[in-house]
């Protein structure tokens, strides 16, 4: 039998249809009905779907128009991130009652290492059950959980008994569990990779395990090493309570394609305002500004510029994005614009952002 580290007790907690569940919680009239958060326009994108909507095939990241066609009675509601953050903070308080080793992945999911925990409870399964019960009591929302020896298996396990359930994969069952697992259930294997694996005769973990490391790297590059290890229960990534943010950004999909430069600049101004707000709230700044453009034919282009100083001012971000926008001739009308700030000062010593007055002289505003 293969050797793998079996001394960790990792829990992956995942809220059930979080955004949509919050909306149904706050508005009783939505309970039991198909709800989509965001994506209200034909071109908008669904951020989350209730389980009632999922029965019709509605999923997150789906175009609003398609979602409406799949479910004519679908109710669209606007996103309320301040509310989602408020409840997420309440949930994390519960996590910290058990361990300081909490690694949030987003507002609605996190890894917890409870190998050594504040309650002195040797059972990760019981801890997960307690956490889910407390979340329900405190917020009124349901959570699911996966429990196993590493982050990868815990993540996969948390999907098995959704919604409002949990699944434990103890050390002695890890190998058989992974061998029987449909390759589509492997976390990180998307639709395109799954199709490629099917073409190679890989349908289950057992099929994947039959392939050599050389074979997998030949067909999947660096990811091949990952697949070779995880199917053997090997995943050494630690729960990192101080995950460093690599970038921060925002984007907007438009209800109609736009070709007017004035309209594009208006949209970029709104996006830059949102980024400035989030940067100040997180107390970070960055040097590298990337503009994302998706044309009406779905062609995606990105352009970047790295500044010699850390910034978080909307005006500087907007002016740089404007420069990038007009760097090349527009190829078509535009359906999406986005701005991302990377090379943040969280990645090295916390250096202050330049003040507007210090850099305004370097900018020329031509609105």
UniProtKB/TrEMBL annotation:
The record marks 19 as: Substrate discrimination. Coiled coil: none annotated. One of its GO terms (molecular function) is DNA-directed DNA polymerase activity. The active site is at 109. Mg(2+) binds at residues 14, 108. The keyword Transport does not apply. Gene3D superfamilies: 3.30.70.270, 3.40.1170.60, 5' to 3' exonuclease, C-terminal subdomain, DNA polymerase, Y-family, little finger domain. It holds the Pfam family IMS_HHH. Poorly processive, error-prone DNA polymerase involved in untargeted mutagenesis. Copies undamaged DNA at stalled replication forks, which arise in vivo from mismatched or misaligned primer ends. These misaligned primers can be extended by PolIV. Exhibits no 3'-5' exonuclease (proofreading) activity. May be involved in translesional synthesis, in conjunction with the beta clamp from PolIII. This is DNA polymerase IV. It comes from Leeuwenhoekiella nanhaiensis.
